[in-house]
Amino acid sequence: MDDARIWQLVDVERRTLADQLAQLPAPRWDEPSLCAGWRIRDVVAHLALAASFSFGTVVSELVRAGGGVDRMIRDSAIRRADQPPGDLVAALRATVGSRRRPVGTNAADRLLDTAIHGQDIALALGLARPVPTEAAVGALERVWERNYPFHARRRLAGLRLVATDADWAGGEGALVEGPVTALMMLAAGRHATVPQLRGEGATRLGAS
User: Fold this and answer.
1) What is the reported pTM?
2) What is the Cα–Cα distance from 146 to 109, expressed in whole angstroms?
3) Is the predicted pLDDT of residue 85 greater than 50, yes or no?
4) Alpha helices of the chain — where are they, by DSSP H?
5) Can you give the three-state secondary structure of 22-70, one letter per residue?
6) Of the candidates 74, 103, 129, which is a domain's last residue?
7) Shared-domain flag, residues 15 and 90
8) Dihedral of the CA atoms 24, 29, 31, 36 (nearest 10)?
9) CB 103 within 8 A of CB 22
10) What do you get for the CA distance between the two ends of the chain, in Å?
11) 46 and 78 in one domain?
12) Exposure of 127 by Cβ count < 10 A (0-12 exposed, 13-18 middle, 19+ buried)?
């Protein structure tokens, strides 16, 4: 998949998530997402920030965070999250069409970030949010191929992941099969989708 197509998929995820969040009652913005320690509003602020960070901003935020990348990402989002929901929706919607990306990342990273965090929000809130198959496969491929921060192949060593609704498989070992979006979330370290999976490997995951 070339970058032009990936960015199209990113824009779809950004637009549909903004549309969905525009209908979310204000009290629900302070509920926890699937990201530990992150509220719904924090995740949305992060997605908006990721499309606007310049190199200089990254450097200054890193210094402020004492050099810790994970802390920088979390703290910068939380500082900007306490805005009215409408402003956060507008900030997310403004990213549609943007091709900016944090230094050291590529278009595929923007796709995985948007697709996974969209599920972090929807699953935590009990909302349906289907991910287009092409986008889910692209995000899963990127999660699977990179090490930091997911370490998916190491964490899921001894398991064979097979999508039942897409042409994707990875790993060796006990079978874990199910929807590609559920596998995407599993590879990203979220176990909320394990009940959607089946096979000997899925049984092990459910018991862990």
Assistant:
1) 0.91
2) 10
3) yes
4) 3-21, 40-50, 55-64, 69-81, 85-93, 107-125, 133-145, 152-155, 180-187, 200-207
5) CCCCHHHHHCECCCCCCEHHHHHHHHHHHCCCCHHHHHHHHHHCCCCHH
6) 129
7) yes
8) 120
9) no
10) 35
11) yes
12) middle
HSE, CB side, 13 Å, CA atoms: give it for residue 11.
12
Predicted confidence (pLDDT) per residue in 23-78, tens digit: 999 999 999 999 999 999 999 999 998 877 654 555 455 555 455 666 767 777 88
* Environment class of 78 (CB within 10 Å of its CB; exposed 0-12, middle 13-18, buried 19+): middle
Q: Give tens-digit pLDDT for 136-149.
A: 999 999 999 998 89
Cα distance between residue 169 and residue 189, in whole Å: 17
In the listed set 112, 129, 146, which residue is the last one of a domain according to the structure? 129
Picking from 54, 119, 50, the residue whose alpha carbon sits closest to that of residue 80 is 50
> Which residue range is the domain that position 111 belongs to?
3-129
Tokens coding 22: 């525009």
Q: What local confidence, expressed as pLDDT, does residue 31 receive?
A: 98
Question: Mean per-residue pLDDT for 106-116?
Answer: 97
Do 125 and 139 lie in one domain? The reply is no
Instruction: Tell me the one-letter amino acid at 133.
Output: T
